[in-house]
Design a protein that fits this description.
Elements (H helix, E strand, L loop, with lengths): L10 E5 L5 E5 L6 E2 L13 E8 L4 E3 L3 E7 L4 E7 L14 E11 L2 E5 L6 E2 L2
Parallel strand pairs: 3-4, 7-9
Antiparallel strand pairs: 1-2, 4-6, 4-8, 5-6, 6-7, 8-9, 8-10
Length: about 120
Amino acid sequence: MRSAQSAPVILLAILLASGCAVTMDTTAETPLPMATGTVGAANEGKLVVVEGRIVGDIADDRPWGWKIYLDDGSGKLLVFVASETGIDVSRLRPGHTLKVAGISARYQQHVELLPRTQADISPP
């Protein structure tokens, strides 16, 4: 059991397509508000926040995590919830509106948003 005084400190390292590594402290910055369709190369590696509806089914991609698509009307965005984050996605359903903060990233050809902790995913 965790005491009320101990808050988790999480560091996240991302290897960008350029080969540069970015390390983020979860308390380092305020997320930049963005539309789901504008998350991409111009803000890769930055902490951003989006709000949109879950479109389509939540894809179980374990052992790596879950894939959730959000859309605010500006375009779909893949939110990849890594298993290591401990984020509980069991109550999320298509049609739910979510506010998600995370690191703007790319995996192969896919733009994605990487939430870091449960606190990064909430109803608006």
